[in-house]
Amino acid sequence: MTDTIMIKLTDVTESATVDQLKYWCKLLDVQPKIISRAAHVTTEQCEMIKKMADLISQGVKPKEAAGLLVNNAVTISPVNGGEREQELVSRIESLEKAVMLLVEQNKRLTATIEMQNEAQNRKLEAIQMRLEPPKVEPVVVKVWEPAPKKKPQYSFLQKFWYELIDPVKLRAI
Fold first, then answer.
1. Where are the alpha helices (DSSP H) in 18-81?
2. Phi, psi (deg, nearest 5) at residue 42
3. d(Cα 89, Cα 65) in Å, to the nearest integer?
4. Whole-angstrom Cα distance, residue 93 to residue 153?
5. What would the CATH number be for the domain defined by 6-76?
6. What confidence tens digit (pLDDT) does each residue in 59-72 have?
7. Angle, helix 62-76 to helix 18-27, in steps of 10 degrees
8. 116/105 Cα distance (integer angstroms)
9. C-beta separation of 72 from 55 below 8 A
10. What pLDDT score does 83 carry?
11. pLDDT tens-digit map of 138-153
12. Backbone angles phi, psi at 153, to 5 degrees
């Protein structure tokens, strides 16, 4: 792991306040790293902020100074990527082709799997038909019931007499 030297934002320059330094960092697209509740910047970022302070002390507005420093940083950085770009473009195209091939294979596999599932379902239905008993209409079964009992028919006097003498004869038979 490479350790970079971090400088506390308040130690960068004496001529600016912390709020001004934060504003300049925002203009320069510098992201200070917070360590122990204090903002820190790298040495390269510190140099850019010092140049910004020098330009502002000469009377240049902060936005213009930031524009000059950012443009200088862009023009200083070398741009050689023609061959590298071609290599990346060809690599991306080959990856796109590979992805398209995978999509086609996936479509074919899903189609074959669906066909196999349908065939298996047909086979299972045939086996099920052989194993299940044939379907027969249910037969209605009439349950046996004893014949209803008849109450004996007697006149009033006979009923009265049997009630006193032999009540068994009044039972339903």
1. 18-27, 43-57, 62-76
2. -80, 170
3. 37
4. 110
5. 1.10.1660.10
6. 889 888 888 888 76
7. 50
8. 16
9. no
10. 83
11. 889 899 998 888 887 8
12. -100, 110
